[in-house]
Amino acid sequence: MYKRKSIQSVLKALYVFEAVAREQSFTRAAHHLGMPQPSVSRFIANLESFIGTPLIHRRHNRIEMTPAGDELVKATELGLGHIRAVVETLMRGQTIDRLSIVCTHGFAHMWVLPRMEPLRALLPGWDIRLNTSDQPQDADFDDADIVIRFGSGDWAGMHASLLFEEEVFPVCAPALLSANRLQQEMVQPGDLSALPLIAQDFGEFGWVSWSDLFRAFGIKCEQLPEIHPVPSYHFILQAATEGKGVALAWAHLTEPYLSNGWLVELPNMRLSTGKAYYATFATDHPQKEAITRWLTACRMP
Fold this sequence. Notes:
This protein is an alpha/beta fold. Helix content is about 40%, strand content about 20%.
């Protein structure tokens, strides 16, 4: 007997599917959506599994819709197009001035929130909202005025304002060094292989992982030491301050932890990736001047 399935679990996948069909490329769709290509592929695979039939054929550097894919594209474009039109109509009738910022939980806590008041001063009376997600594929990029992105700075149709370049290094509590009879200035890269490590699963999204750091500094280790997973970056730093292990620190995000002595940097292990964090917003955004002034002030020492 046929049982009707709820499409609630694949609504985001339909949105991604529509972008792939429109861009005729997984890579271009990922770029437009601001998510890694593997995440786009996973959304499509989940959608195909849910429906029970292939939707897209991969043909080397191009894609081709199956008959089922063609049918779903038409329905998705019609449905999302109608929803967008209605939402835009309703929003034009609203009088609330609102500006939204999308970023990860850790970035919100350590960078955006301490700098929020100058933005409020530039936009008095505005409803400024901060939407956070540690899963980039879940973030509502299209609904945001400002999106904090990580990458090379090239996003079509967006102005990308450089915040800071990515520089990563290991940190820990002074007590952890004492417990392992290590002096901060004498720590060598190889010492990491004997220390507990704290991490969040960032590798999927292109951020530096412990494997990257070990590889960059030639740390010989048959397998990584035990890694203690923590659900968000703020809690990673909290666990590190409690002496539970060594954490990866991102420069410009962890300065308060270092200046207060809660954490210390392990020397000679700074890794510059060539990538950076950017605040992106539409090139024709009506509040472009205010946003630019805020970001300029944020970069001042």
